[in-house]
Design goal:
The structure holds two protein chains of two kinds.
Chain A (H helix, E strand, L loop, with lengths): L17 E5 L2 E5 L5 H7 L6 E2 L6 E2 L12 E4 L6 E5 L9 E5 L13 H4 L8 H5 L5 H14 L13 E14 L3 H12 L4 E4 L15 E2 L2 E2 H14 L3 E4 L2 E6 L4 E6 L13 E15 L3 E3 L12 E3 H9 L8 E6 L2 H12 L3 E7 L12 E3 L2 E6 L6 E5 L5 E5 L2 E5 L2 E3 L12 E3 L4 E3 L8 E3 L9 H18 L33 E3 L4 E2 H9 L5 H8 L12 H12 L3 H4 L13 H5 L11 E2 L3 H6 L3 E5 L2 E6 L8 H14 L2 E4 L4 E6 L3 H8 L12 E7 L5 E11 L2 E6 L4 H15 L6 E4 L4 E7 L3 H6 L18 E6 L3 E6 L8 E7 L3 H11 L6 E2 L2 H11 L45 E8 L11 E3 L12 E9 L4 E9 L8 E6 L4 E8 L14
Parallel strand pairs in A: 1-7, 8-9, 8-15, 9-12, 15-28, 17-24, 18-19, 18-24, 19-20, 31-33, 34-44
Antiparallel strand pairs in A: 1-2, 3-4, 5-6, 5-7, 10-11, 13-14, 14-15, 16-25, 21-22, 22-23, 26-27, 29-30, 32-33, 34-40, 35-38, 35-39, 36-37, 37-38, 40-43, 41-42, 42-43, 45-48, 45-50, 46-47, 46-49, 47-48, 49-50
Helix pairs in contact in A: 5-6, 5-9, 7-8, 10-12, 16-21
Chain B lengths: L16 E4 L2 E6 L2 E8 L4 H12 L8 E4 L2 E7 L2 E7 H4 L2 H9 L3 E5 L4 E7 L3 H6 L15 E5 L2 E8 L4 E7 L3 H15 L1
Antiparallel strand pairs in B: 1-2, 2-8, 3-6, 3-7, 4-5, 5-6, 8-11, 9-10, 10-11
The chains are: A alpha+beta, B alpha+beta.
InterPro entries (chain B): TrmE/GcvT-like
Protein name (chain B): Sarcosine oxidase subunit gamma
GO molecular function (chain A): sarcosine oxidase activity
């Protein structure tokens, strides 16, 4: 297909042709085109359907403010909805489809909504679908969602990768138009480290779209030469295709760089986009300005666009919006569009100017004091009806109509920290206020300096101001001569004539009437207007529509526009993919994993892993023939209790506590006493929170007078360390105590079972006597193993068996695990995982995180007497609160089913044998439950009111959610070896 | 000599060395580490030991070296000392003997994984890993930062062409993965 609207000139490479497909039809374009410019070049004006009424829509703009020309870009898993055709850089093989339609784009069946528009005004769903209530979720909402909405998701995993990164600079310049380039030149030549970011793939901003000259060169050529000079400066980083999306605290800006959006498929390993966090000492916002449309009846037909966009298409992309165009303007800029297109041989039907003093500079018609009152054309503009100054009506034949309602400085970035823009009457626009984020200056059109010369000059001033703020001297930058036309505008927001719909927010289908309805229904705050009508709530965030809505609201309320004010501007400036916010943190790499020292060995054994915090722990080790996890776990428990088992317990937190006051410090941290613990001994310790509730438990081993090794539970390792640091630094800063985590420095293994000593005796060097007499229960010490490797040995037991924990420097953990298995073969040693570990600790009645659940006290846990009265420790006072020490306080107990074949579900609640089953009659709950292969039935730990006196009592165990009701008996929590004979053996 | 063979943080018998484009990522398994923290009244002795061992007392955000020993600032009154593992595996014991209870010494060799990222594009890789101002950092600087949610120390070395990353050993694979994908982005 020929590019029938392609004209000469522009900044595209016509020596190369690119093929692309839109709605299944193939077209051609050139490098430098956007999807929108290429479609227009091919005579395609109809690019999408509107949100609510499914009105036919084409491009309104030529930039990121585009509300209408949204497409589903690419296909398959890479399909991306709501992509603005105006910012999509054309590449060979590009695939795009129109969206939000039922049927074809030309014959969208949901266009019926346009006929029902009287029923679909602002807030219609708040009023229309109120009854019957049950219909909302099942009927109304699905239908509305089907009819409205924009693009669709592929529902497939995004195959591309996204990066995150961090940049630092002296001066960040946001926008590379005339102001941004002048600012970058000034700062770059002065030696500052500069980042110049621009959302476009070609830097230059409006210079690429206008025919003004700068010095002897065209604006575009000057921009290209300036960019080339900046690229040669090592202290300047040029970032095109990079949108600064937000201004955050302390000079930090978020920016999305589209690294590979301009290719079909990024190279392997290369990111599609990168989210940069830019740390700037100073920032100069040169974000330019956006032209405003004008509200009039049927101002949304394909072919009706901003006059500045019309110039962009003609001058930058060599595309005539149509063979015959008209202009509707309230300022001189509209005339420039007519002049530029006229010069390129496009027929100008007329320039319709609302002003009585409109200029006449060319040999085409200017309709002075006139207004466009309506348009015609089903799928694209064909005619525009004009009310002339004398009251008569005239129809203009045109396939495109350029609107120019004035310009809005792009104040977005200046308001991200609640700054408010201020009204400028001369510009009829808001400009940045004085309450800018720290370190920010604004220059160019973003600051209301609309002429080219004015923008460049203010860019230089902005850069100088930034340099001065960081103590750098600016070198003189001489600017070439440039256009410096004054602003000549007469505020004009919408045409009052006509009963039809005049569109304000084209993406969300909000009309002038909707704003009036909102006012009529009592919404006076601009924020309420926004939410009731959805004005400015679409993906374009109302960049082309908010101002019109505010102006109409002001008129209706009898206020000035600044009295009405603006809504809050929030990041991101343009729609941002969730993928780039996630970066590499997705799937298996969502968070880092921690591998135990024996991980590789365990993997070789086919271990099944479970995530505990970030740790991957072996849950059980299936053996051949085992088809159910219970078979593996039961075997591991039985083998360990019968002979010996080994478990990697490196994950338990280890904190090195040293210093002259180390013992006194532990005395404060733990509720039980530690000051008198002998060197070479380990003690179980319980930590309380300030409020007397149990925080964590573990052991502290005294390796020397001034050296303890504290262990914590795996889950609480970080929290306990943080707590201890708080206590050290804030509560007892005078104590001589130093802390450091050694969790990962030592590989630690529990070796448990009646043969554990015999096994370890084969590994521990013979000079160390680990007999029961020399190394009794709760002993600890530094030893050597395997011929001289330094190690630590602790005689502690979580399983209730004769057991040790042996630690070696982490790098030897793998080898030690293998050696234990080799040496233990004669004892039928088994590795056991966290499930068997859990079963054995329940059998023994040892509490863990399930019991230390943030609501339980030492008393609840059956350790009330451990809270020493002879000393002050954290939480001891508040643990004495009356409410925590009542006669019927919850106490930890053992639970077993009366019928041994019945399971005991964790989380179930305990009720008396008779009486109601409800919260008022709750007697307690189950915290941990398992099948005990040693006892041959299920067992559990739990809390029951007054538990100490209820042993032997039968109760009902109920789980209403799982519909379980079982009779159980309250028993001792120590199911196995209640006297502790095994662990002392 | 004991009979247990060590493995590296990445689980290999030898350190992993990877070339990705012009970037080299090397696992460093040849360093012994120990932390040293001043005890109350121990400033003079601790500083004397530090000066003797690594040449000076590293200030906040600084490293220093003397011979094969290096050290960097970890926190208030706390430093990390490194030395060749082959000759100084018992560096912690040596330090304990030197500070005579005036400082707390803890063996850290097994707690950390170390990776060196080398090549002209090292700063580009670093920018995709962490928030340190790498282009403003010099040899002798060290910064604590977060890489892929992991607390790490980073320090430029070898005339600034190499970045040494010291991160938690148990997460060595995740840390290496983060470095690898960042290097692929840049390569």
């Amino acid at each position: 297909m020929t590019q029938q609207n392609r004209i000469s000139g522009g900044q595209i490479d016509t020596s190369q042709t690119l093929k692309f497909t839109f709605d299944g039809k193939q077209y051609t374009g050139h490098p430098g085109d956007t999807l929108a410019s290429a479609l227009l070049a091919n005579g395609v004006r109809l690019m999408g359907r509107s949100f609510k009424y499914h009105r036919p829509r084409g491009v309104l703009s030529a930039g990121s403010e585009e509300p209408n020309a949204l497409v589903e870009l690419r296909g398959g898993a890479r399909q991306e909805p709501n992509t603005r055709a105006t910012t999509v850089e054309l590449y060979n093989g590009l695939l795009a489809n129109s969206q939000n339609r039922l049927g074809s784009l030309k014959f969208d069946l949901l266009a019926i909504n346009d006929r029902l528009s009287n029923f679909l005004t602002a807030g219609f769903y708040y009023k229309t679908f109120m009854w019957p209530a049950a219909f909302w979720e099942k009927l109304y909402e699905p239908i509305i969602r089907k009819a409205a909405g924009l693009g669709s998701l592929s529902l497939k995993e995004d195959p591309d990768v996204y990066d995150k990164g961090f940049l630092h600079c002296d001066v960040l310049i946001i926008g590379a138009g005339p102001a941004g380039l002048a600012a970058a030149l000034t700062a770059g030549r002065s030696g500052a480290s500069v980042i110049l970011a621009d959302e476009d793939f070609r830097m230059g901003g409006r210079l690429n779209s206008e025919t003004f000259t700068i010095g002897d060169a065209s604006g575009a050529d000057w921009a290209a030469a300036t960019v080339a000079e900046l690229a040669s400066l090592p202290n300047v980083r040029l970032m095109s295709r990079t949108t600064v999306i937000g201004a955050f605290d302390h000079g930090i800006y978020g920016a999305v760089e589209r690294n590979n959006d301009h290719v079909a498929t990024p190279d392997e390993g290369k990111p599609r986009q990168t989210l940069w966090r830019i740390y700037s000492k100073q920032a100069v916002v040169c974000a330019g300005a956006l032209e405003r449309p004008i509200g009039f009846e049927n101002n949304d037909r394909p072919g009706i666009m901003l006059a500045s966009a019309m110039r962009s298409y003609a001058n930058r992309w060599a595309v005539a919006a149509d063979k015959r165009v008209a202009i509707f303007t309230n300022n001189d800029d509209g005339h420039r569009a007519a002049a530029d297109l006229h010069a390129k041989g496009v027929k100008i039907s007329a320039v319709v100017d609302t002003r009585a003093d409109a200029p006449r500079n060319n040999d085409y018609e200017v309709l002075v004091g006139a207004q466009v009152i309506d348009t015609k054309g089903r799928l694209g503009l064909t005619f525009a009806d004009v009310r002339l100054a004398d009251g008569s009506e005239r129809t203009l034949e045109c396939g495109a109509l350029g609107m120019s309602g004035g310009w809005n400085p792009n104040v977005h970035m200046t308001c991200h920290q609640r700054g408010r823009p201020v009204w400028n009457d001369d510009l009829a626009a808001f400009v940045p206020g004085a309450d800018l984020p720290a370190g920010m200056t604004v220059a160019g059109a973003a600051n209301g300096d609309f002429s080219t010369a004015g923008a460049m000059a203010s860019g230089v001033i902005g850069a100088k101001s930034a340099l001065k703020a960081i103590g750098l001297k600016a070198k003189t930058t001489k600017l070439p001569q440039a256009e410096d036309a004054p602003i000549n505008i007469s505020a004009f927001w919408y045409v009052k004539e006509g009963k039809g719909r005049a569109w304000l927010d084209q993406q969300n289908d909000v009309t002038v009437k909707d704003v009036k309805l909102s006012h009529q229904e009592g919404f006076r705050s601009v924020e309420h207007l926004k939410r009731y009508t959805t004005l400015g709530m679409a993906t374009d965030q109302g960049k082309t529509s908010n101002m019109g809505g505010l102006a109409i609201m002001a008129e209706l309320a009898g206020k000035t526009i600044p009295e009405v004010g603006t809504t809050i501007f929030r990041p991101p400036y343009t729609p941002t993919a969730i993928g780039v916010l996630a970066g590499r943190a997705r799937g298996q790499e969502f968070h880092p994993k921690r591998l135990t020292p024996s991980h590789h060995w365990a993997k070789e054994q086919g271990a099944v892993f479970v995530e505990v915090g970030n740790w991957l722990r072996a849950q059980w080790f299936p053996q051949k023939g085992e088809t159910h996890w219970r078979q593996s776990v039961d075997r591991e428990v039985i083998a360990t209790r019968k002979s010996v088992g080994v478990c990697d317990v490196t994950t338990l937190g280890k904190i090195d506590v040293q210093g002259a006051d180390a013992a006194e410090f532990l005395n404060k941290i733990y509720c039980n006493g530690f000051a008198k613990l002998a060197v070479g001994k380990t003690r179980y310790g319980l930590m309380l929170r300030e409020d007397g509730i149990a925080m964590d438990d573990g052991t502290a081993a005294r390796m020397a007078e001034d050296h303890f090794v504290v262990t914590t539970t795996t889950a609480n390792a970080l929290g306990v360390y943080r707590h201890m640091e708080f206590v050290r630094q804030c509560l007892f800063p005078d104590m001589d105590v130093q802390l450091i985590s050694t969790t990962e420095a030592w590989a630690q293994f529990a070796v448990a079972g009646p043969n554990s000593r015999r096994l370890l005796q084969k590994i521990v060097d013979p000079e160390y006597d680990i007999s029961n007499e020399a190394f009794p229960f709760m002993a600890c010490g530094n030893i050597t193993i395997c011929g001289g490797l330094r190690a630590r040995l602790f005689r502690i037991s979580f399983s209730g068996e004769l057991a040790y924990e042996i630690a070696v420097p982490t790098r030897y953990g793998d080898a030690l695990m293998r050696r234990i298995m080799e040496e233990g073969a004669e004892f039928d040693v088994v590795p056991y995982g966290t499930e068997a570990l859990g079963v054995m600790r329940i059998e023994k009645g040892h509490a863990t995180g399930n019991e230390l659940n943030g609501t339980t006290t030492a008393l609840n846990l059956g350790m009330g007497r451990m809270v020493s009265k002879k000393k002050d420790s954290i939480g001891s006072i508040l643990s004495e609160r009356e409410g925590l020490n009542t006669d019927d306080v919850l106490m930890q107990v053992g639970i077993k089913p009366v019928d041994p074949s019945k399971p005991v579900p964790a989380g179930a609640h305990l009720m008396n044998l008779t009486g109601p089953v409800d919260a008022d009659h709750d007697q307690g709950y189950v915290t941990s439950a398992c099948y005990s292969p040693i006892l041959g039935h299920h067992i559990a730990l739990g809390f029951v009111k007054g538990g100490g006196n209820r042993k032997g009592e039968k109760m009902r165990l109920v789980s209403p959610l799982t519909k379980v009701e079982t009779e159980i008996e309250i028993v001792s929590a120590h199911f196995v070896d209640p006297e502790g004979e095994r662990l002392r053996a | 000599m004991h009979s247990l063979s060590p493995i590296t943080a990445l689980g290999g018998q030898t350190p992993k060395i990877t070339t990705i484009g012009s970037i080299n990522v090397s696992e460093i398994d040849s360093l012994a580490l120990a932390s040293i923290a001043t005890r109350k009244g121990g400033k003079t002795v601790t500083e004397k030991v530090l000066k003797s061992m690594i040449g000076s007392v590293p200030a906040v955000g600084k490293t220093c070296s003397k011979g094969s020993f290096s050290g960097f600032w970890m926190g208030p009154d706390q430093w990390m000392i490194t030395a060749p593992l082959e000759t100084h595996e018992t560096i912690a014991d040596d330090l304990v003997a030197a500070v005579v209870s005036k400082a707390s010494v803890t063996e850290q060799t097994g707690a950390w994984a170390i990776f060196d990222i080398s090549g002209a594009a090292m700063p580009d890789v670093c920018e995709r890993l962490c928030a340190v101002p790498i282009r403003e950092m010099n040899v002798g600087d060290v910064c604590r930062t977060s890489i892929h949610q992991l607390g790490c120390f980073v320090t430029p070395m070898n005339s600034g062409n190499t970045l040494r990353v010291v991160g938690p050993r148990a997460s060595a694979r995740s840390l290496y993965h983060a470095i690898e994908v960042a290097a692929k982005s840049v390569a």
